[in-house]
Amino acid sequence: MKAGIFSAGKLGGIFVLAFILAGCRHPATSQPAPDATLKRMDAESAGGRRRNSGRRRKKSQQGSRRGRGGGATPGGGATLDGQVTEDALDEETLCGIGRGRSCDIQVAVKRGLFETGLEPAFPENLDCLGIDETWAIDYTYKRDREQYHGGIDMPTAYGTPIIAAADGTVVAKYEGRRTMRGREIIIRHSPEDTGLPVWTYTQYAHFDEMPKREVGERVRMGEVLGPTGNSGRQGRRERRPAIHFAVWFSADPRYLPRSRKIIPVKGFWMDPIALYRGGTPFDSNSMKALPEGEKRVSVSVMTKDGKVTPPGAKVVWPYYCERK
Ligand SMILES: [Zn+2]
């Protein structure tokens, strides 16, 4: 991103100048390599909301106190591959993926949380469970603040098995008694696991029972994670049983485990349907810009007998499909 800014010639010069000036006026708010847009967001936020690293630390302590029942760290305090502490994260990713109460929702939008118009298309000879609404729709009416749905929901009967979308390692498990998402598991997938040139994270929520797999364990694509349910705090209307399925990605393999969520270093939101395109691009800007005809994505799926359609796919829909 920075290369893009600086290669923009005169415009880049202006940004650099603005950055230097901003730095001179606020020497106490220096942050590692902030980009021009983050700088602009800082400038636009009200004086009292300017963030610095000291405040960020305090906020994270509050976050840890509030969130209980976390399971992102394996027993004995051991650290999993890729785990980092909050120091490794920039403010934009923390807010954009973490979406804490004090975060501007536009930061999440900047990190890819906006509607792209993608729709799943399933193999014609199979019956698959679809989504009820497309990704990142406006949820403000369900919450007490501006918010976008950070996943897709697939409503179906209680107990329907939710399966792992790809090979990967469990990096978090949450009881979620106080969250909207309820019982939840997050799996981290290496580029080898998915065939994509980035690290991806898949999140499955609202389980009726806690998934059995533990943090640190490997799972296989298509493995049953647990039964569909409706766990988690209810919003203004009672939720129907469904999976909430979400995806993040980053070129950086590292991530921050938190008491209620994990945050990939330099992470972005991915429209979960983009995961099934089987290659690049998959970022939200590129997805939104696709011609209408390419917005229907052929989704790779698995049937209960373990057969994958199309053969060789490394990512499958998180519910089994059935033969018609
Ligand atoms: Zn949802």
Structural description of this entry:
It is globular, with a radius of gyration of 20 Å. It contains eight helices and 17 strands. The protein has helices at residues 2-6, 10-25, 36-44, 53-66, 91-98, 105-110, 191-194, 284-289; strands at 119-121, 126-127, 152-155, 161-163, 168-174, 184-189, 199-205, 218-219, 224-227, 242-250, 255-257, 262-264, 268-270, 296-298, 301-302, 308-309, 322-323. Mean pLDDT is 81; it is low at 1-71. Helix content is 21%, strand content 20%. The longest helix is centred in the first third of the chain and has 16 residues, at 10-25. It has a domain at 119-323: Glucose Permease (Domain IIA) (Distorted Sandwich), CATH 2.70.70.10. It has 324 residues and is α+β, with helices and mostly antiparallel strands. Strands 3, 5, 6, 7, 8, 10 and 13 form a seven-stranded antiparallel beta sheet that branches. Strands 1-14 form a two-stranded parallel sheet. Bound molecules: zinc ion. Zinc ion is lined by residues 149, 151, 153, 244.
Shape by Cα distribution: globular
The CATH architecture of the domain at 119-323: Distorted Sandwich
Write down the CATH topology of the domain at 119-323: Glucose Permease (Domain IIA)
Number of separate strands: 17
Largest sheet report: 7 strands, antiparallel
Mean pLDDT: 81
Give the helix tally: 8
Quaternary structure of the protein: single chain
Helical residue percent?
10-25%
Order of helices and strands: HHHHHHEEEEEEHEEEEEEEHEEEE
Q: Given this structure, which CATH class of the domain at 119-323 is correct?
A: Mainly Beta
Question: Which small compounds were modeled alongside the protein?
Answer: zinc ion
- Rg calculated over all Cα atoms: 20 Å
Low-confidence stretches: 1-71
